[in-house]
# Entry
Amino acid sequence: MDPISTARHIFKQYYPRNHLMLASALSAGLVLVAMLAPEESAHGDRLRSEINGLVGNIDELRATSGISGERSATQQIMENVAKAAHEAALQNAERAFVTQVTVRQGDTLSSLFSQVGLSAQSLSRVINSSDESTVLNRLFPGNKLSFYVPEPGQLKRLEVFTSPLEGFVFTLNESRYDVEPIIRTPEIVQVVREGRIADSLFLAGQRAEIPANVIMSMADVFGGVIDFLLDPRQGDEFSIIYEEKYLDGQFVGTGQILAAQFINQGREHAAVRYETSAGEAGFFSPDGESMTKAFLKNPLDVFRISSNFNPNRMHPILNTIRAHRGTDYAAPTGTPVRATADGTVTWAARNGSYGKLIVIEHQGSFETKYAHLNDYASGIKKGSRVRQGEIIGYVGATGGATGPHLHYEFLVGGVHKDPRTIVDQLPLAIALDDTEMVRFRKHSQEILRQLTKNRPDSRLLSYNSYPISTQQL
Ligand SMILES: [Zn+2]
# Structure
């Protein structure tokens, strides 16, 4: 078939009442524009502008080509218009067979599948298609599923969104499903907010319209210098720059804190997030010192120390000297226990009087042990990689414990150290060398200027005028 007949054929098939209007490429373009006009989808918009472009080209083509040229140019445009019409028709047709489902409390996979008229057999084919299918076993209320079922009982494509930004697409390929991740990139917007404390940090955050999770992260960032339970006073002020994520103009969540300033009882503290050229990221004071310690001081948030590290402890029953090689933290059963630094789990099982024990190996021949656990956090097993602050288990009284507590040990090169004092003697998480310092200064200069734009007298600005140390030479 020649292109015009093809276009006519396709057009007739999808828009039978309009085929007579295919008198010329121009009118076909106009008809399509008219038909797409009420369509508000992004696809419709794209197609509309494409067709507008084609129509706009006609005059130009006519002007630049001879009579025979006009004919072939028109044919070319016809082909393109027909192709676009075909694509649009397919998309519209496809949309009619897509069902969107939002997971609700109490839903099961089979109830979701039967909602859209799919059988248990169809479900098991999806589930058994690959290892990634296990994502279907971890759905939560609010997750969105999109089923494309062009013929009754025939699931051609399934999109599963576990968050607005992430998901998986299962596509039928002969008798099995191919699985591919979907990652949507949000638009990132930087937000600057300021607050003043009248009562509590959280209420101040609320008044400044800063989400609670961002305020909590800010409290974490300054955790080493300000005690947010005791130190904040009425009149303390803070400013913060953080990221907000948007998808198709809709707010989908917050991102990183980029910088923050806290004026506590007249003293100015500031933190700048910085990523080294090696890809290590953390918060730094304006003079380039890491605000993150290599190890957390305590593996629990809420506790009472019931027994300190003591190499000469007299055993209460045996009345002999028996070293206590760790710190005991008394806390209720089930209290979350955190990894005090990044590392690899080398043991997560029962071990004699330690009971349920986790051992983590850290970079630089450090090792930490967490004993008498009631349970391990899900996914924690030998070989697991853990991050500082990640919950690894829960307080218990397993093994030789008389009551619920965490027995925590800290070893350096295989030698037991006092966990409570060693932390302050260890190096900071990330140290910036001279080259990094130059890079850091450049980065922090701009962000501190934004952070203090309403405080031209801020001491923070002076960091930028410091001459960079002569050591760089
Ligand atoms: Zn102990």
